[in-house]
Amino acid sequence: MNRLTTALLAALEALIVVAIGIGIALVPLTVLWATQVDLGLDWLVFWRAAADAWLLGNGVDLHVQLGPAVVSALGMPAALEPFPVTIAFLGVALPAVVLGVRTGRRAAATPHRWVGVLSAISAYGLLATLVTLSAGTELVRPSVPQGMLLPTLVYASGVLVGSELGSGARGIRERFADLPKTARAVVAGALRGGSAAAVGVIGVSAVAVAVLTLINYATIIGLYETLQSGVLGGIILTLAQLALIPNLVIWAAAWFVGPGIAVGVGTSLSPVGTALGAVPGLPILGALPHGTLELGFVGLVVPVLIGFGAARMTRRRSEGTDAPLPGAAERLVTGLSMGLVAGILLGLLAWWSAGAIGPGRLSMVGPDPFLVGALAAVEVGLAAGLGMLVGGRPAIVRAEGRSFAKR
Q1: Can you list the residues of the chain whose pLDDT is less than 50?
Q2: What is the separation of C-alpha 347 from the centre of its chain, rounded to a whole number of angstroms?
């Protein structure tokens, strides 16, 4: 496979990823255009709506200016002034990352790895720019610089990760091998254990969201019926909520860590107390717990237990090698570093999941990323440090082909 073929195939994959991302919203909107409005409106109106949804899902801010008639119909006087919508529906960005990893792996399998990587990212950036320039109207205007940059960065992150994984991460391994032995052990343990702890908290949060959705299923269905959106409107509403599910999982993680979330200015939902007013009219938000949770503080144990468990697994892995066992100071630093890694990962996810969803009190929805990151680092770090220090199997002395426990 020559360079030109590699470049063209990578660019085609980028085009397909953009088409999938926009098509998720455009297909039902086009059906709505054809069946409900009898082709009476310009189809570009629906294209721009799908493009805005795609850009918003990739983290691009939308600046909204509603007309007086719309504001009166909504009963939201605060919407008379222009307001931003900054919350990213992460279910839109997730396919781009996953498919980007696939593109990176395919590029790494060719003799021209970086030609494929750069072609895919460049094509995606060009397409994102064209979509951004076509999406603006007098009512809704996406941020052009963000539209040119953020979707491309989301896709590029997946492509670069996939490229490294597909190449066996040789470049990273070579640079990692240049570090001193103790530093290598600490960095490897911190990255492995901290990432495992963050994934563990997210996993428990996903289960919690699923359970809450099942428990509050009747409430969610009742909210659907109240909206009276019709069949196609219900499909579009359901797609929007599916795109919001990753946000809900991250919000649940923020709840377990401790800071909780805000669903509007002056509201809070955390293990220590709940103060919610009127929430946005999305049926899935009916799964949010209401009232005082008497045993809510028990949720704070989750990141502590996960941090301790991640440390124990990391230590057992190091004890299973022929290398000398690390000292107490090295183990403690590794455990605390796990907390730092977990805090950074969870803080970044919290930052990406929060934002403004409307005017007035809806200008603050989601967790505080700094509090989530700081508390996660402390909770996971202290538990992981303890897990790295306590217990453990005795050191193994190998002699004459046999293993003996050092007493």
Answers
A1: 394-407
A2: 11
